[in-house]
Write a structure and sequence with these properties.
The chain is of the alpha+beta class. 36% of the residues lie in helices and 25% in strands. The longest helix has 16 residues. The radius of gyration is 18 Å and the shape is globular. 16% of the residues are buried.
Length: 158
């Protein structure tokens, strides 16, 4: 397991025709992290934007690291631009902070709470972010109710 940071420069690439971006990881995850599959990482792009994510093999020859729209916006960069990447393996437990009003909804729906707790960090984060991004209180309330319905229907994420 590698504890020292890995640094490299990469070109931001577009995933097909979607507004989705990634950089290719130019090293062997097996040699650096003793892992062939997904590797949870902490990254800093251009020495200013922090990100927690994963290196993943996505039908690609090498592992890739996604760059969210938010990260690209903070960097002021897009497809074709170069970015410097400083990363290390993330061994901290990933937890999602749940606001009190959302926790109350789960307390009234214990079965949904169990299903939610069994979801991946990413799916939990998506649900909570979706609710918290609501601009109007009534939208927030509607989303909380819809989240419970979606979880009970087996939908893993937004």
């Amino acid at each position: 397991m590698k504890t020292e940071p890995v640094q490299f420069k990469a070109i931001i690439k577009q995933s097909g025709t979607m507004n989705a971006a990634f950089v290719e990881f130019p090293f062997s995850t097996e040699k650096l992290f003793n892992k062939k599959g997904q590797v949870k990482i902490k990254a800093i792009f251009d020495e200013k934007v922090e990100y927690r994510g994963s290196l993943a093999k996505m039908k690609s020859e090498c592992h890739i690291l996604g760059l969210t729209q938010e990260v690209r916006k903070q960097l002021g960069k897009t497809f074709g631009d170069e970015v410097s990447v400083f990363l290390l393996e993330d061994q901290e437990e990933r937890t999602v902070e749940i606001a009190e009003d959302i926790a109350l909804v789960f307390n009234k729906n214990p079965e949904a709470k169990v299903l939610f707790n069994n979801m991946s960090y990413t799916h939990k984060k998506e649900y909570i972010r979706w609710i918290e991004e609501a601009k109007k209180p009534e939208t927030r309330e509607n989303r909380k109710a819809k989240m419970i319905t979606m979880i009970m229907a087996g939908k893993k994420g937004i």
